């Protein structure tokens, strides 16, 4: 996994692994999900912010649904996860 940090909306986010994102999501933290070949922020804002408190769903179905609807050959076949630094 590449170490990446991005500023989106004046907040810094750093890339984390899927298990780390799952733990943070289960604790109620807001995570950012983005296709792996795209970068959060400009120009098209391909990311989404999600939290267990808002969705009421477990992490795996949320990540799976994101990958089904947003990941493809052009954007990348899997999701990458970011937490606020």
List keywords for this structure.
85 residues, alpha+beta, five-stranded antiparallel β-sheet, 3 helices, 5 strands, 28% strand
Structure description:
Helix content is 31%, strand content 28%. It contains three helices and five strands. The protein has helices at residues 18-27, 52-55, 59-70, and strands at 5-8, 11-16, 31-35, 48-50, 79-84. A five-stranded antiparallel β-sheet has the order 1-2-5-3-4.
Largest beta-sheet characterization: 5 strands, antiparallel
Number of domains: 1
Given as residue ranges, the uncertain stretches (5+ residues, pLDDT < 50) are none
Report, as a whole number of angstroms, the end-to-end distance: 17 Å
Short précis:
The protein is of the alpha+beta class and about 80 residues long. The protein has one domain (about 5-85).
Which SSEs are present, and which pair or pack?
Layout (H helix, E strand, L loop, with lengths): L4 E4 L2 E6 L1 H10 L3 E5 L12 E3 L1 H4 L3 H12 L8 E6 L1
Antiparallel strand pairs: 1-2, 2-5, 3-4, 3-5
């Amino acid at each position: 996994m590449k170490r990446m940090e991005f500023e989106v909306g004046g907040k810094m986010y750093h890339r984390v692994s899927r298990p780390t994102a799952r733990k943070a999501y289960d604790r109620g933290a807001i995570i950012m999900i983005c296709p792996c070949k795209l970068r959060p922020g400009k120009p098209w804002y391909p990311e989404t912010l999600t939290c267990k408190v808002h969705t009421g769903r477990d992490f795996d179905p949320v990540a799976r649904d994101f990958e089904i609807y947003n990941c493809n050959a052009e954007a990348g076949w899997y999701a990458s996860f970011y937490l606020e630094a």
